[in-house]
């Protein structure tokens, strides 16, 4: 399978990062590039296990236990599940989506150089050594330590004050607080993480995947596992998220009414491989752009990760050691190795 000529340009707009140029510089042949066979596999569409979290707050103990068992089963079999009645306001998520779209509509030079949101703007993949490691996307990967400060928001004051102009917690801060509260109260992490995950260690990532007319099998986000304990994802109706299930890629059917939760590497290590941190990716869309918001539940770098049972599959390690090893592997090989580096 061959790509279209790389000289084909996207819609001309100053908001787009120079993805075409960076992708082209990574390609060995600027006119025709052979697509990696693993990226062209036939996939199936699936609906993730759907869990009603209101049952965790039920007065009926059997309903609470059944809900907890459903979470554990999905975490083990899929590594992913979706939740409704999660306690995060739909109005807040809607506000975040509108402000997110306005944020990404800013000129590229503004996003890249004006220090918005703790100077957290990222695009493409600066560590990519080949075209198959390239991500057709842009994002604000926001550490949460400074989001209460006015300087963090620059010209996009509505992210700080909300659409009504009232001075209060920003949409970004309110969303991150809601996600952290959800992760602790939903039964997925309450007993595991205690106080090791807070605003000084967690991240909120605002993603945009521009439409891609270069070729139909472009990664919006390359295959990977998440390095955190837990990820909470709010996505739109476009689709594009795919995960590895039974040794094949399956496409996740979007459900705009639900949040997606997935297990990260640290949770898999803590559970002694009972819960799975599953490889996943995002595929770019040729016709429409895609938006998502992800909250990453991370500990401090000196937090020690150990198993909940013995004998342990993994040696004990700190989150800082894990991140350092991941970065070294990506620098040397272009891809993440992750947990296999820490097997006993």
From TrEMBL:
Name of the protein: Fe2OG dioxygenase domain-containing protein
Domain Fe2OG dioxygenase residues, every copy: 198-299
One Pfam short name: 2OG-FeII_Oxy
Keyword Iron: yes
Source organism per UniProt: Coptis chinensis
Superkingdom to which the source organism belongs: Eukaryota
Gene3D superfamilies xrefs: B-lactam Antibiotic, Isopenicillin N Synthase, Chain (2.60.120.330)
SUPFAM superfamilies listed in its UniProt record: Clavaminate synthase-like
């Amino acid at each position: 399978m061959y790509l279209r000529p790389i000289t084909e340009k996207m819609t001309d707009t100053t908001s787009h990062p120079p993805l075409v140029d960076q992708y082209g510089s990574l390609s060995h042949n600027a006119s025709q590039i052979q697509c990696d066979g693993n990226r062209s596999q036939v996939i199936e569409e699936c609906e993730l296990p759907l869990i009603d979290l209101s049952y965790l707050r039920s007065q009926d103990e059997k309903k609470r236990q059944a809900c907890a068992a459903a979470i554990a089963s999905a975490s083990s079999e899929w590594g992913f599940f979706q939740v409704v009645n999660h306690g995060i306001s739909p109005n807040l998520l809607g506000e975040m989506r509108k402000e997110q779209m306005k944020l990404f509509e800013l000129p590229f030079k503004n996003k890249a150089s004006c220090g918005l949101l703790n100077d957290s703007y990222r695009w493409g993949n600066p560590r990519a050594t080949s075209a198959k490691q390239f991500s057709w996307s842009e994002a604000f990967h926001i550490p949460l330590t400074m989001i209460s400060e006015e300087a963090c928001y620059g010209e996009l004051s509505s992210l700080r004050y909300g659409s009504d102009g009232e001075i209060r917690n920003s949409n970004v801060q309110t969303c991150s607080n809601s996600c952290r509260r959800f992760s602790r109260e939903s039964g997925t992490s309450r007993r595991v993480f205690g106080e090791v995950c807070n605003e000084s260690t967690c991240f909120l990532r605002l993603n945009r995947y521009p439409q891609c007319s270069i070729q139909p099998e472009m990664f919006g986000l390359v295959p990977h596992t998440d390095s955190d304990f837990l990820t909470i994802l709010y996505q739109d109706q476009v689709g594009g998220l795919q995960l590895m299930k039974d040794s094949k890629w399956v496409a996740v059917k979007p459900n705009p009414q639900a949040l997606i939760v997935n297990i990260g590497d640290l949770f898999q290590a803590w559970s002694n491989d009972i819960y799975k941190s599953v490889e996943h990716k995002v595929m770019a869309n040729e016709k429409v752009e895609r938006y998502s918001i992800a909250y990453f539940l991370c500990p401090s770098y000196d937090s020690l990760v150990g198993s909940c049972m013995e004998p342990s599959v993994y040696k004990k390690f700190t989150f800082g050691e894990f991140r350092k090893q991941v970065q070294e592997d990506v620098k040397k090989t272009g891809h993440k190795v992750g947990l296999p580096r820490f097997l006993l």
